[in-house]
Amino acid sequence: MNHKILIIAPHPDDEILGVGGTIARFAAEKNEVYVVIMTQGYPPDFSEEMNQIDRQEALAAHQILGVKETIFLSFPAARLDNVPHRDMNEQLLKLIQRIQPDMLFVPFIGDLHMDHQRVFLSSLVAARPNNPYAPKSIYAYETLSETNWNAPYITANFVPNVFVNISAFLETKLEAMRLYASQIKPFPNERSEESLRALATLRGSTVNLFAAEAFYLIRQIY
């Protein structure tokens, strides 16, 4: 059976870093994959030109992965702590009602970036199980340079319990990330091709695979 899968990304490229290989695999298996990018940059922090570049790069990367639809919301990047929680809840609830996803992928609550934490909370509000359109499965993904930079002894620690085999799709993920030319960095920066490959190799070898992406299962309803 084909499924509808919704990935919620706080910023452009988070979806590639955390779910890129899984997106490519699900799309290749004839599932419908939707990506929503929650924020955009506003002056004085970001220029309009930077915002347009981000969106163009996202669309090019998503085309490589086989994304059915990319949805851009307009909440302010790096300033979600100033946005009323209910405003994000409402926008995400409308998306879930329209798309009616079977599976939902969200950033991890323990990420260092406050935007990630707030998007996680709003995602779970919108996906409450008493919502008739709520997804049956919800997974949290890891984002290099955000998930692993927080203090695990005082915040939630990312301990994955679901692994998706992306051995056949790792190169597609890396190709998509290269299209985010404004975001990818040279090694040893964690947002480098080498670091993404290393993490996929590590997660894969954990479960005897060549490459994998790891997730934390939040809820599964059968």
From TrEMBL:
Q: Name one Pfam family in it.
A: PIG-L
Spell out the Gene3D superfamilies in the cross-references: LmbE-like
State any single GO MF term.
Answer: hydrolase activity, acting on carbon-nitrogen (but not peptide) bonds, in linear amides
Q: Which PANTHER family match?
A: N-ACETYLGLUCOSAMINYL-PHOSPHATIDYLINOSITOL DE-N-ACETYLASE, N-ACETYLGLUCOSAMINYL-PHOSPHATIDYLINOSITOL DE-N-ACETYLASE-RELATED
Q: What is this protein called?
A: PIG-L family deacetylase
Species the sequence originates in: Pelatocladus maniniholoensis HA4357-MV3
